[in-house]
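Deliverable D5.2: sample structural annotation.
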Amino acid sequence: MDQFIKEYLSIIKLEKNLSDNTIFSYKNDLMKLLAYLEKENITDYSEINSETIINYFSLIKKEGLGSSTVARYISALKGFFKFLMKNEYIAKNPMMKIPPVKRKKTLPDVLSFQEIELILNSADGDDIRGKRDKALLELFYSSGLRISELINLTVNNVFVKEEMVRVLGKGSKERLVPVGSSALICIKDYLLNSRPHLENKLTSENILFLNSRGKKLSRMGVWKIVDIYVKKSGIKKNIHPHTFRHSFATHLIEGGADLRSVQEMLGHSDISTTQIYTHIDNDFVKQEHHDHHPRGKMD
């Protein structure tokens, strides 16, 4: 049964141009189902019916998975069984009667501008790693990149004079994102005084941000860098790398940026994804109404 999963993943990687991370997630989801089927002594996909699927989802829900994770499982399985049907590997689709999960909309965590300042100012090391970390954090907040985009950024995709970076986003979609002057100063300092000491001609592959071995920083490496300076700043919130992206978008919108422009900078294919940032700071919205509406305040 494993060979059908391999075939399906190969096809969607080519046809849908999905990222390696998405393919990896789908593979894990499908292999989890396969492990369940083996425990139930089901050796052929044609033996699966809607009851099998319902029992499977009842089991994984007991693990305390969030609605977004369960929704992803359903999406992975729907696509897989549709593939099996299309290729006539099965006669009936057991996912047909499975309703989609309503995802619980949660507002992303954001930092205030003052908290961002505290973190960026705490990255004040003047050594090789300190300069790298400062440039990384400044760019993270200045451009709102995804962590995957940040670690895959190459030196020749940083356009200092144009004050832009060229990013390869989800689905291999390329976009240009502006970079603020503060981040550019730190990047130039890093390129001149830090990166040459980290670079390894054999392993660096022109990647912008390198680890101590001259290789591309991993996701975990970025997590550790963020964690170091959050702790150093004294902020007690649960902050992760994506918080910088959320904060970038929120601060732009609070400052009056056009929603379409923010969508373009974030690389969102659907503006409804960007619109979540318009609902984050209700206090800010109420204050704006209070300050600018002719009957917003009663003195």
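Annotation notes: The beta strands are 158-159, 164-168, 174-178. The first helix runs from residue 2 to 15.
The annotation will be released with the project's public dataset once the embargo ends.
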